[in-house]
Every structure is written in C-alpha cells, then in structure tokens.
Design a protein that fits this description.
- With 90 residues, this protein is mainly α.
- It has one domain: lambda repressor-like DNA-binding domains (434 Repressor (Amino-terminal Domain)).
- Helices cover 61% and strands 0% of the residues.
- It is built from 5 helices and no strands.
- The longest helix has 19 residues.
Length: 90
C-alpha cells in the first residue's frame, strides 16, 4: 500500500472514530456536511481522495478542527515527498 493510501486510510479511520464517538451515522454526517453519505463511507474506508473544502465541511459536521483528522505520527513517512504533496493539497 502506498503512503498516500496509508494517509487516506488513517484519515478515514479518524473520521469514522469521531463520527461513531458522536453517535452519528454516515447519513447524518453527510447531511450536516452537505456531502452524500456514500462518499462519507468511501472516505472513511480510504477509497477516495478528498480536498480541503470537503475536509472543512466534514470537520465542521463532526465539531473538530481539520488538523484533528490527520494522523501525523504514522501515516506519513518524513522522507516521502509524494505523501507530503498529498497533504499539502489537502
């Protein structure tokens, strides 16, 4: 698995944990964020890339800061330029 896929999966896991902690379904998060529930599900499982405006909507729906959606410790290899470029775009 590439480090970009690792980063997606780690972020998706964070979204899923925040969602479940708040007792929300993917449908409810989708409604709060104005994003289809199927897309929320796909993001949670790391199947799709996302962008900054989408992350802002999801973070707002979950009542967290965007940076809280990132797993800085394990998802990114410090020497992997491709991973950092992905994070920069987000």
């Amino acid at each position: 698995m590439s480090s970009i896929n690792n980063a997606r999966a780690a972020m998706g896991e964070k979204i899923r944990v925040f969602r479940k902690t708040r007792g929300l379904s993917t449908l409810e998060v989708g409604q709060l964020a104005a994003i289809p529930a199927g897309r929320i599900w796909a993001l949670e499982w790391g199947y799709l890339p996302t962008c900054s405006h989408e992350l802002k909507k999801i973070a707002a729906a979950l009542d967290v800061k965007v940076l809280e959606l990132f797993d800085w410790g394990e998802a990114i290899d410090d020497d992997d330029a491709e991973s950092w470029e992905c994070m920069r775009r987000c």
